[in-house]
Amino acid sequence: MPDAQLDALVRLLTNHERIADAILDRLWADLTGKSRDISMWWHDSLHAGDYWDEDWAVTRPTSADELGRLLTPQRITVRPPTTGVSSVVIEFDAPFEEEHGVGALVIGHRIVSIGYACDP
Question: Are 73 and 88 in contact (CB under 8 A)?
């Protein structure tokens, strides 16, 4: 594993709680419509429909912490560096996105984007 990828993995492991909280906060902001619209169908879905209660038979979360209990980590991919820094993609199974899953693109401590697991 090249040094940049190893550094990214060490940063992730060292700061995993902070990064996990940041991912949940970012996804929660999107689901509640408090973030800019990232063009995902689930933007503001906690207020916009009955998906949570009817389609998924999952109790609608009322906080980022409750949302975290619905996500199941599936894969961590450390990408090769493009500008000297490697990024990390963390993929989750999610009841509201069973087909594609949810992914977070992380560089350092920053959550760069949230989206489908295959293309956050």
Answer: no
Q: Which domain holds residue 37?
A: 3-116
Per the structure, the count of domains in the chain is 1
Q: Which of 100, 103, 98 lies closest to 114, judged by CA?
A: 103
As a whole number of angstroms, the distance between CA 98 and CA 57 comes to 13
Contacts of 22 (CB under 8 A, 6+ apart): 109, 110, 111
Eight-class DSSP state of 52: I
Nearest-angstrom CA–CA distance, 82 and 80: 7
Cβ atoms of residues 101 and 93 within 8 Å: yes
Tell me how far the alpha carbon of residue 71 is from its chain's centroid: 9
pTM beyond cutoff 0.85: yes
pLDDT in tens, the chain (120 residues): 679 899 999 999 999 999 999 999 999 999 998 988 778 888 887 775 556 656 666 777 889 999 999 999 999 999 998 888 889 999 999 988 888 999 999 998 899 999 999 887
